[in-house]
């Protein structure tokens, strides 16, 4: 069975690459650091390419939707991500269209054979009404052990009902909330309150976009459980190991 799954991906990836006009699609991994233990908790898998036409994952999926291959693209990227990091929890970005296409509930999807935890990241900048429409799909994949992370809290619609309605295991704070934490006491108080609210609702919090030591320290002080950003480690393949994570012992 495992061979047939890999064969499916080998068949899909060239088709998808041709459809969206992008070659050399690959995955890099950015560590998500436990801010108290200073240990890598897991990795976010990110799509990259050396193709000059590649403008980023958002544009890649937009082009795939126009060419009716969004589901195939998502499946291919999940397969690559899991094959490249089989030993740690993974955070995988999911485009809202993938819920509509039905690919996520296929029993042979690679997320269901990854033994460490898998967190599907859905962005907070998409209206809640869309995720409510896809709630049955969310419930089905979560019933099989897949976990949910709400991405970009603090950007886009900034609707705290996401946390109450979707009940994610993880909430990721957008860099807009993290960048000024050291210099803005009112923002610091707000973020600390948001972290407390998330904890009450059963979610742990990742501070995204940490690029300075002062942001790292402020995120820890505000109560964020995990951190992610260039100050900790840049995305890489193979996944950066704990010994290579760029954070001094404190």
Plain-language structure description:
- With 250 residues, the protein is α/β, with parallel strands linked by helices.
- The protein has one domain: TIM Barrel (Alpha-Beta Barrel), CATH 3.20.20.
- Helix 1 (2-20) crosses helix 3 and helix 2 runs antiparallel to helix 3.
- The longest helix is centred in the first third of the chain and has 19 residues, at 2-20.
- 40% of the residues lie in helices and 18% in strands.
- The chain is globular.
- The protein has an eight-stranded mixed beta barrel with strand order 1-2-3-4-5-6-7-8, surrounded by four helices.
Distance between the termini: 47 Å
Named at the architecture level, the CATH assignment is Alpha-Beta Barrel
Unreliable stretches covering 5 or more consecutive residues: 1-10
Number of helices: 10
The overall strand count is 8
CATH homologous superfamily placement? EAL domain
Strand content: 15-25%
């Amino acid at each position: 069975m495992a061979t047939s799954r890999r064969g499916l991906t080998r068949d899909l990836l060239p088709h998808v690459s041709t459809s969206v006009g992008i070659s050399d699609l690959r995955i890099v991994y950015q560590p998500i650091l436990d801010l108290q233990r200073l240990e890598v908790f897991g990795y976010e898998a990110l799509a990259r390419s050396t193709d000059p036409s590649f403008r980023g994952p958002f544009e890649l999926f937009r082009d795939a939707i126009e060419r009716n291959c969004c589901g195939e693209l998502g499946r291919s990227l999940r397969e690559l991500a899991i094959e490249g990091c089989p030993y740690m929890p993974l955070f995988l970005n999911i485009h809202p269209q993938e819920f509509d296409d039905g690919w996520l509930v296929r029993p042979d999807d690679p997320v269901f054979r990854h033994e460490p935890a898998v967190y599907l990241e859905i962005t907070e900048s998409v209206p809640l009404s869309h995720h409510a429409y896809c709630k049955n799909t969310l419930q089905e994949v979560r019933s099989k052990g897949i976990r949910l992370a709400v991405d970009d809290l603090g950007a886009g619609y900034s609707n705290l009902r996401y946390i109450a309605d979707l009940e994610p295991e993880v909430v990721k704070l957008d860099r807009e909330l993290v960048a000024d934490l050291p210099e803005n006491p009112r923002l610091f108080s707000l973020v600390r309150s948001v972290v407390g609210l998330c904890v009450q609702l059963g979610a742990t919090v990742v501070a995204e976009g940490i690029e300075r030591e002062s942001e790292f320290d402020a995120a820890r002080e505000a109560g964020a459980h995990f951190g992610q950003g260039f100050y900790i480690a840049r995305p890489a393949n193979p996944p950066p190991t704990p010994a290579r994570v760029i954070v001094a012992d404190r």
